[in-house]
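Q: Hi! First time doing this. I have a protein sequence and I read that you can turn it into a structure. Is that right? Here it is:
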Amino acid sequence: MKKIIHTDKAPAPIGPYNQAVLVGDTLYTSGQIALDPVTMELVLDDIETETKQVMENMKAVLEEAGMTFENVVKATIFIMDMNDFGKINSVYGSYFDEKTAPARETVQVACLPKNVNVEISVIAVR
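A: Yes, that's right. Below is the predicted 3D structure, encoded as structure tokens:
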């Protein structure tokens, strides 16, 4: 049985999807972009600030499900420009203990929703 996870501390979905779905002990999150959850405006000052907003949005979704980044077992990062990888990776990495960090792939794409530079989704397990 699936449980829909929703929090006002992360951006509301902008399409026919939910922020996350919990099935048993496994949480599947939708991709987060750098939308401010209060204003629903994009935070695109620079790639580090954008990535931090993405991670803070993800943190809010995880917390709503009773989890933290320690529960994350898999992450997917979509980026517009692989030249931003180092800066994105630095911010992303600050949310994890390197010794217990999740599996991950990073993919450069042609376009992301709202023309953002980074989108991240995760799978987490209790």
